[in-house]
Amino acid sequence: MQQNIIIFCIISCLITTSLAVKGIDIADAFNNFTCFKNAGYQFAIIRGYRSYGAVDPNAATNMKNAQAAGLITDAYFFPCKGKITAAQQVSDFISALGSEEEYSTNGLYGTIWLDVETNPSTGCGWSSSDYTGNCNFLNDLITNFKNKGKLVGIYSSKYQWETIFGSVSACAKFTSLPLWYAHYDNNPSFSDYAKYSFGGWTTPNIKQYNGDQTVCNADVDLNFY
């Protein structure tokens, strides 16, 4: 009986792994997304806004190249809290990619993932004491994107959430949004989430399971859903 249970568990793990949809996220300019597609990756989450408060000039080209290679595309948005209002950042992003969106059959991206992690750029960091203000700023970003008719999700980790909002249970007002969480265990599975949950989410949507990997001669992070 014990041997049968072990065999069943092994088979279940193999099935889960085979059904996983894997993708990458990337910040740098890149033109060989076909290499990712051939390597078995099916989606690309591309940086759309930089941590120092500016639209990424490579975003639209990267998205178009990724789509041409047959990848599903989303954008990630690394906000700057301090120098620029949430409304202005959202407006700049929408304006910069707007003309490209008009000529794109299915749009350049699906969901905009708000990158909630410590920001190293001067004048753009989250407050180290005003946790309520941090939560309000995130809410402002979400509200402004929603008012533009955009789909929004949250990217973060248990550690980052606790650091920025004061506790893992704080700012638990966005659970209706999809969650992309980071935990680098090199395991494309959500089996770890119960231990690393935060922000009130009970179920994640994407996991970043490995970071700073070289794939197709590009620096990427590895993800799955």
Automatic annotation (TrEMBL):
GO MF annotation, one: lysozyme activity
Keywords carried by this UniProt record: Hydrolase, Signal
Domain of life per record: Eukaryota
Biological process, per Gene Ontology: cell wall macromolecule catabolic process; peptidoglycan catabolic process; signal transduction
Signal sequence, start to end: 1-20
One Pfam family matching this protein: Glyco_hydro_25
Protein family: Belongs to the glycosyl hydrolase 25 family.
Name under which the protein is recorded: Lysozyme
